[in-house]
């Protein structure tokens, strides 16, 4: 049976008209299409399915919630699922970020963060603060508020006239720098760009700085030097600016610790966005975690003027709670750290075979590699080669799913996310690398 057989293309108006195979079922790290072909999910979808597909405990918890209630409007009822998930989530947050606000995805989480920050400024007599500085490259979501913070020109340009332009500073793309600075020095230099931008904008007008602690798909898993985020925290404190972490991709164990910030605990944010691995694809769910002092000030001033109909949906929260149980029961952040090491070593091994792999980087099971035409200069491949799409298609044909983008600050580069579910086993990493090696061979 042809899995792409005639179907009405009613919802197919994304980037291309190309039809995708019909998904039949998914279990663990594998997915099967309607023709029976098996795929190794080497990117957890879009870095979402952290606990793997078809987890029976999560499905049972969702069924149990369905038997009780699938919807209760937040202004009418509390639900046990939402209350318990909020309590358990707060326990995993940096100290003080104990107020949780549920949403349905990453973009909504980011919108909530910037709207809470703004209302905190209003509540504390700082009306002149509204600018949110972000970085390029970066990705914070597709709704107009989150998009205004996104540093990926191809995504923002069409909507530029409809958005308030927000200031951006370069993310630490250290792997492109050809200088003699130590990592420590380079991290501090990149952080100073924030201080310079704050002074350029006028510190009294700056509300917040938003950052992915470890870069996601837009940067290809960019890990900052250890000195970067602690210095960013100091700079925010110096000017009374809120620090927002977008942990939509890095949260829920992906980087080998529960949160990205857990690698740099001194660089604690004031507000955080979570989604993706938080409910691991079992339900649309995201969250904002905020410092109690911010929430209390906003409540004292009349309340948070914001909210979504599906916020705190009990079925989504039951899924999130069961996912959190699994993350903890199976100690998946630790598995991500362990398997991340093997994956990293294996990807670096591919560099010996394929000179056009310019860089391998990442943390835990948020790993990426970048293709270049010259490893010494890190010159990107010509755009016309369309490498980011071609290699993904070749791999897909061979039964391996990876995720790619062509962005890299002011430059252009093809990078590929290799981010299997955190339950991945050693033999499955070998299988992944085998399929990837065959794909790169066919690509060369
Ligand atoms: N923030 C980051 C860091 C992301 O990676 C994404 C999605 O890729 C988002 C926000 C937006 O999340 P969503 O697609 O769930 O709206």
From TrEMBL:
InterPro entries: Aminotrans_3, Aminotrans_3_PPA_site, PyrdxlP-dep_Trfase, PyrdxlP-dep_Trfase_major, PyrdxlP-dep_Trfase_small. Gene3D superfamilies: Aspartate Aminotransferase, domain 1 (3.90.1150.10), Type I PLP-dependent aspartate aminotransferase-like (Major domain) (3.40.640.10). One of its GO terms (molecular function) is transaminase activity. Its cofactor is pyridoxal 5'-phosphate. SUPFAM superfamilies: PLP-dependent transferases (SSF53383). Keywords: Aminotransferase, Pyridoxal phosphate, Transferase. PROSITE patterns: AA_TRANSFER_CLASS_3 (PS00600). Belongs to the class-III pyridoxal-phosphate-dependent aminotransferase family. This is Aspartate aminotransferase family protein. It comes from Fodinicurvata halophila.
């Amino acid at each position: 049976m042809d899995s792409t057989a005639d179907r009405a293309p009613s919802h197919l108006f994304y980037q291309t008209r190309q039809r995708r195979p019909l998904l039949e079922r998914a279990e663990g790290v594998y997915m099967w299409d309607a023709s029976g072909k098996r795929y190794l999910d080497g990117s957890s979808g879009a870095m979402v399915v952290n606990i793997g597909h078809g987890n029976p405990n999560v499905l049972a918890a969702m069924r149990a919630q369905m038997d009780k209630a699938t919807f209760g409007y937040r202004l009418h009822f509390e639900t046990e699922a939402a209350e318990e998930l909020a309590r358990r989530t707060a326990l995993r947050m940096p100290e003080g970020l104990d107020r949780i606000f549920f949403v349905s995805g990453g973009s909504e989480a980011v919108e909530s963060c910037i709207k809470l920050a703004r209302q905190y400024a209003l509540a504390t007599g700082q009306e002149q603060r509204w600018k949110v500085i972000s970085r390029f490259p970066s990705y914070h979501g597709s709704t107009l508020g989150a998009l205004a913070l996104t540093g990926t020109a191809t995504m923002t340009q069409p909507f530029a006239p409809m958005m308030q332009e927000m200031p951006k500073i370069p993310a630490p793309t250290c792997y492109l720098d050809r200088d003699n600075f130590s990592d420590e020095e380079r991290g501090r230099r990149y952080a100073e760009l924030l201080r310079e931008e704050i002074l350029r904008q006028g510190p009294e007008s700056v509300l917040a700085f938003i950052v992915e602690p470890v870069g996601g798909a837009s940067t290809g898993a960019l890990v900052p030097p250890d000195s970067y985020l602690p210095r960013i925290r100091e700079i925010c404190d110096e000017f009374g600016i809120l620090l927002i972490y977008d942990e939509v991709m890095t949260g829920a164990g992906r980087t080998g610790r529960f949160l990205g910030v857990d690698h740099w605990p001194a660089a604690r944010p004031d507000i955080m966005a979570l989604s993706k691995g938080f409910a691991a694809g079992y339900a649309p769910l995201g969250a904002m975690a905020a410092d109690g002092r911010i929430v209390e000030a906003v409540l004292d001033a009349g309340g948070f003027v914001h909210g979504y109909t599906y916020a705190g949906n009990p079925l989504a929260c039951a899924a999130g709670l069961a996912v959190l149980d699994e993350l903890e029961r199976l100690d998946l952040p630790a598995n991500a750290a362990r398997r991340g090491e093997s994956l990293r070593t294996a990807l670096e091994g591919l560099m010996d075979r394929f000179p056009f792999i310019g860089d391998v980087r990442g943390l835990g099971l948020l790993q990426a590699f970048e293709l270049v035409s010259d490893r010494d200069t890190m010159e990107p491949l010509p755009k016309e080669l369309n490498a980011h799409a071609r290699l993904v298609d070749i791999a897909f044909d061979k039964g391996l799913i990876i995720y790619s983008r062509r962005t890299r600050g002011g430059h252009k580069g093809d990078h590929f996310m290799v981010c299997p579910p955190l339950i991945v086993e050693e033999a499955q990493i070998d299988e992944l690398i085998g399929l990837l090696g065959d794909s790169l061979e066919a690509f060369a």
